[in-house]
Amino acid sequence: MSTTSDLRTEPPGLPADVAARVRALADQLHDAVRDEMLRKDPAPEVLALWQAAKMINAAAGGLDDHVEPATSAHTSRWVEVAFNASDIADTALRIAGSRMSLSDAAAHVERADVDALDVPFNAATAYAATVELTPAHDGEEYARPVTVAVAGDPERTLTVPGGASPRPYTSGQLLRVAHHLDRLGAALGDVVIASIDKPAT
Rounded to two decimals, what is the model's pTM? Predict the structure, then answer.
């Protein structure tokens, strides 16, 4: 009998018996919200719990739909966990913004930026990126395309059909944008500040 860990079922560092118990808990959570998820339009609070069950299952090695060689299973598992966590963040911010006015959401984002600027390392998360929305002038007011580009990088753009102008957005969407820019800022801070603090040897 081989004693080598099977990366398809057991993440390194997580004992097999612990992984099995965690997967069982994820199954219980899945079963608890299944009926609500079968509704035509499940509540976002239910969706968040469903996504949490998926994330816990993946973290415990339960990627039932993925058949991959052991060399890539570990990476695929934790990338899946990251995607699940991002989905949970989006859903949670949609819920958080559902009872906020746009002005309240904007004030919340602004306070977060000010707080980030108070700590040198965290400053990288404030105003982490600028996204430009540039309507094209093609004379079609009812469906003008919009080009989304990273400021200063004209080679990386995405053009999509536009809607009425001004284009409405929700408080939840504003919170989601701020959250993901904050995470981007944190990652950029790790790359830039860490490289300054810890020169390559």
Answer: 0.71
